[in-house]
Amino acid sequence: MALIVQKYGGTSVGSLARIRRVAEKVMAAKREGHDIVVVVSAMSGDTDRLVDLAYGITAEPNPREYSMLVSTGEQVSMALLAMCLIGQGCPAVSLTGGQAGIVTDSLYHKARILKIDNGPIQDLLAKGNIVIVAGFQGMDAEGQITTLGRGGSDTTAVALAAMLEADECQIYTDVDGVYTADPRVVPEARRLPRITFEEMLEMAGVGAKVLHKRAVEIAGKLKAPLRVLSSFEDGPGTLITFEERSMDKPVEQPIVSGIAFNRNEAKLTIMNVPDRPGIAAAILSPIGKANIDVDMIVQNISVEGGTDFTFTVHREEYDKAHSILSAIAKEIGATEVRGNQKIAKISLVGVGMRTNSGVAQKMFTILGEEGINIQLISTSEIKVSVVIDEKYMELGVRALHAGFGLGVELKEEFDPSLEQVVSKKIANFD
Prior knowledge:
VC0802-like; globular
């Protein structure tokens, strides 16, 4: 008997028929003798509807009330699934994040988990219940409902799996694993049997929507066993593992494992900034205090004592960032602020980059042959990212996928024994 945490995304619980299908999967695992904790997202479209309602009332929703509103989507899903299981004669109890013992800070709609009290869930499991937890939410020390940000249900599931010492955390979604690229953009994309936590973290951070970045961070840090599976068909999915493939078999260690993209970025440039020590901090500190996440940063070479400073933010935060930057420009004596919301980021990710040179050069060549101009470049040990005009994004992704041969199947079968590298560790939030 094992303890398994299963997470079902919005499309998986998007209708009553799909909730019944989820109930069948959950009951099948329960019949095998496992203890089951289920984390659910809101039904597909519900969170967007609630967000639209909030911004239909006011341009700047109160953070506490915003979290109170958008947290209700997951509560609908959990209650419906519990009703379905109980109706089938299977004991089940639904819990909000607070009832499940999830304690967060007080940042409301971008809260971070501080600790989890396992007691409520363990008591219910001991009584034979399937426990269903609302994802995406928790409660702060003052008893206020908080939310973890979009995609936070993945974070809920992984954190619970770690703290409960689960044998595996299974993320069920509308795809059957992690692919070399989004199959909706690249039909030739193939499922990866396994990917390292390091690669998955980079993929999630640069736009891959299969897993939430914070969820991958927690899983990697706390060694929570993690697998991505399909809600709609059976299969092995993709194992997120802690070790790289053997380097003595190059075919098993591709240089590039996958391509991710992000349409939701915007670029801001503050022109003719005085080139002096501390100027970068003077620009970015107010942005950070406004809780705006900055992605790529580029500062041009100084010319006659002035320079241009460029960075990217999420498109939803563009107007707020532009307003702050305009005020900063006046304070520091910069000439103007320019912005562009019609950009996209494409990233190549792969641990094989560590031991193979020329990836960036090949990427730039492929994009150049397609007539795609590169606006910004960012690199890390296992990633190369570029910002391009949004209208060329799909063309660029398909060209890179073909150019790096990512649609070619591996020549050797995946060895299931390699899955055993995943091990349990007691989770401990500081």
